[in-house]
Amino acid sequence: MAILKILMMVFDVAIVDMVSIIDLIIGSLQALLFTFTLIALFNPLLMTKHFVFRHLLPILVFTAIFIFVGFKCGNPQLSDFDALSREALHPAVILRELLLVYYLFLLIYLTFLFRKEAQIYEKELDNYFSDSFFLRLSWVRYCFYAALTVGIGALFSCFFFSVLWTWLFTIAYTIFYMFFGFYYIQYPRYFTYIQPVIYTPSNILDDVPKGHRRYVWEELRLQILEGKYYLHNGVNIEEMAHFLKIGRTSLSNFVNNDEGMSFNSWINFLRVEEAKILLLKNPDYNLAQIAEMVGYSESSNFSRQFKLFTRESPSVWRQQHKL
Q1: Taking a C-beta distance cutoff of 8 angstroms, is the pair 58, 102 a contact?
Q2: What is the pLDDT, as a whole number, of residue 130?
Q3: Which residue, 38, 204, 224, 293, has most beta carbons within 10 Å?
Q4: Are 107 and 33 within 8 A, CB to CB?
Q5: Do 8 and 161 form a contact (C-beta atoms < 8 A)?
């Protein structure tokens, strides 16, 4: 795309055509397929053939109808707003305007869809890992919003043309796709960790009568607290469920419903409470040592979680609560 656009500008073959059908079709397809590419990193199970085709269908229908109308009625070139105003009721121009409205709707819809899937992914991540910060795939969100900016730029290009703008826009999306490619090829190393989150096994809740579930969870909770299993570095819900000899889904439901928080939040809450005791009990220990003792491999993550629950850094909290 970038090479073709540059060649058109270098050889001065660029045609100014407002609300260009080609630009709108390319923009719609890019927005759709690129967003789906990013969503597939969070939830590949959503990307079925039926799902993709259902979203491609409106663009394919627009294209087919436009080709038919173009042959019958022609496709006027719109060089400025006056031309657009004069030809506003031409059948081909009406189709272009409708596709423009659809493209705008598509950008809004894809933003909501992406945000929804990203939130679901984060929730599943927090319900599986005790330390999920490095697996949140923040670069995927940055890529989406960068792509959305490119999409809005393409929308702007439908009404405005200048050689400088075209060069800047072309350079911007070329750099963007290069950086995206660099991060995208590193995804498999993350996937090895997040695969259990994405492909959740269909665990069946243990056969525990509803009236006894509270009692069962109190027993299990006591077992976790006494064994201090939450202090194990990198512990996840699968390992803890195996330790407790119950299903992963059962444990997740117990933590979510009885503790009122995600697995990640609960484990970090318990670690912070343990850290408070150790900070006062061992005044000579530095934060890195305390962090390691309560299950954190990085002291920066320990400080971040500690501040999240206490609104103070570990060092400030220790200073204020010295015996």
Answers
A1: yes
A2: 85
A3: 38
A4: no
A5: no
The string of DSSP letters for 158-173 reads TT---HHHHHHHHHHH
Residue 56's nearest CA partner among 87, 100, 25, 96 is 25
CA distance 194 to 138: 14
Mark out the alpha helices in 262-298 (DSSP H runs): 263-281, 287-293
Residue 280 main-chain phi, psi, to 5 deg: -85, -35
Domains of the chain with bracketed CATH:
2-198 (no CATH), 210-320 (1.10.10.60)
Q: What is the pLDDT of residue 161?
A: 67
How far apart, in whole angstroms, are the C-alpha atoms of residue 106 and residue 98? 12
Q: Which of 84, 63, 75, 66 is nearest to 161 (CA)?
A: 84
Q: Where are the alpha helices (DSSP H) in the chain?
A: 2-10, 21-42, 49-73, 81-86, 91-126, 138-157, 163-184, 187-198, 210-227, 237-244, 248-254, 263-281, 287-293, 299-310, 314-320
pLDDT in tens, 116-172: 999 999 999 998 988 877 788 989 999 999 889 888 887 877 777 666 777 787 788
H-helix or E-strand spanning residue 70: helix 49-73
**Measured between alpha carbons, how far apart are the two ends of the chain, in Å?**
67
User: In which band, very low, low, confident or very high, does the pLDDT at 84 lie, cut at 50, 70 and 90?
Assistant: confident
